[in-house]
């Protein structure tokens, strides 16, 4: 018997189950990125499955739902012809998500008008998502965020960076959380980046209040805030920090490790800085997102700032 082709909903459900497994390999992640970016229907199916699973998380300890969660956490190492139980159940639910989330399907008493979704951006390019309140969120490549829009407007940036254009609603502040820092806005445009060493907030329009473990600041247009290791610094350069949304990445005296991290979002071959002193070295430059990681390696080697100590299909490792 010939296996039928998976529908986008079935494939999205299977990928969702695999992505919940902490042991998901870099090769699998690359295959997921390729699938997600191959067709707009794939991205739409992924959003629907993510939205269903986020809603399931609000249903408490219902035994049937708990069984789905348990199954989703099991290693997805069965035959490629069979997807895990959680994937099958999630795919079955996707059909029901054609209803608006405010229609009452899967609504709970504790959150009667809450719209919840999890979004992921593929490796090759940023992605713009229209939120339920009229705001937009532009996720950079390899970035993800959990969104709750309803009686509250809350976003948790779980990876990478995003640019938010916030619909004005004085009764419902728009709050973004990243690595212990919160950004509160009413109607404005700002970017937030969750890095390995620091959290960055860049304000383009309006006003935002940023609260970090090191203190709180209200930013003006054009200002950036950097919070890391109990320290907080405010400066200029918001346009430069958010230039990624136009396909360019600008760096001014940025630690080389952070430059590599930013360029790796778009790279099929990641740059690894193995030398601690090299990783801390300030670097200034401008790159296009496409091919930027390769250009960085070429430039560092050509100027003898670094040398290649290892190279594979997935990564290139640099040291002094």
From TrEMBL:
<protein>
    <submittedName>
        <fullName>Fec operon regulator FecR</fullName>
    </submittedName>
</protein>
<dbReference type="InterPro" id="IPR032623">
    <property type="entry name" value="FecR_N"/>
</dbReference>
<feature type="domain" description="FecR N-terminal">
    <location>
        <begin position="10"/>
        <end position="52"/>
    </location>
</feature>
<dbReference type="InterPro" id="IPR012373">
    <property type="entry name" value="Ferrdict_sens_TM"/>
</dbReference>
<feature type="domain" description="FecR protein">
    <location>
        <begin position="123"/>
        <end position="209"/>
    </location>
</feature>
<dbReference type="InterPro" id="IPR006860">
    <property type="entry name" value="FecR"/>
</dbReference>
<dbReference type="Pfam" id="PF04773">
    <property type="entry name" value="FecR"/>
</dbReference>
<dbReference type="GO" id="GO:0016989">
    <property type="term" value="F:sigma factor antagonist activity"/>
</dbReference>
<dbReference type="Pfam" id="PF16220">
    <property type="entry name" value="DUF4880"/>
</dbReference>
């Amino acid at each position: 018997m010939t296996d039928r082709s998976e529908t986008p909903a079935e494939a999205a459900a299977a990928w969702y189950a695999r992505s919940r497994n902490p042991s998901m390999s870099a090769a699998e992640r690359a295959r997921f990125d390729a699938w997600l970016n191959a067709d707009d229907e794939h991205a739409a199916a992924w959003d629907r499955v993510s939205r269903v699973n986020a809603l399931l998380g609000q249903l408490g300890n219902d035994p049937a739902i708990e069984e789905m969660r348990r199954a989703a956490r099991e290693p997805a190492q069965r035959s490629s012809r069979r997807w895990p139980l959680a994937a099958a159940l999630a795919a079955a639910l996707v059909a029901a998500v054609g209803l608006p989330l405010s229609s009452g399907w899967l609504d709970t008493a504790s959150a009667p008008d809450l719209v919840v979704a999890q979004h992921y951006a593929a490796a090759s390019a940023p992605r713009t998502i229209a939120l339920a309140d009229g705001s937009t969120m532009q996720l950079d490549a390899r970035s993800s965020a959990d969104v709750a829009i309803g009686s509250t407007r809350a976003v948790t940036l779980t990876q990478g960076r995003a640019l938010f254009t916030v619909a004005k609603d004085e009764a419902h502040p728009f709050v973004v959380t990243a690595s212990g820092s919160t950004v509160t806005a009413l109607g404005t445009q700002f970017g937030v980046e969750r890095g390995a060493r620091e959290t960055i907030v860049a304000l383009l329009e309006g006003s935002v209040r940023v609260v970090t473990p090191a203190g709180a600041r209200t930013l003006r247009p054009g200002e950036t805030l950097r919070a890391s290791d109990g320290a907080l610094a405010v400066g200029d350069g918001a346009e430069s920090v958010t230039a990624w949304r136009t396909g360019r990445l600008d760096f001014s005296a940025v630690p080389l490790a952070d430059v590599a991290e930013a360029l790796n979002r778009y790279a099929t071959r990641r740059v690894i800085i193995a030398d601690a002193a090299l990783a801390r070295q300030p670097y200034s430059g401008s790159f296009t997102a496409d091919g930027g990681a390769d250009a960085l390696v070429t430039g560092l080697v050509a100027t003898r700032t670094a040398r290649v100590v290892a190279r594979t299909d997935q990564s290139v490792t640099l040291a002094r």
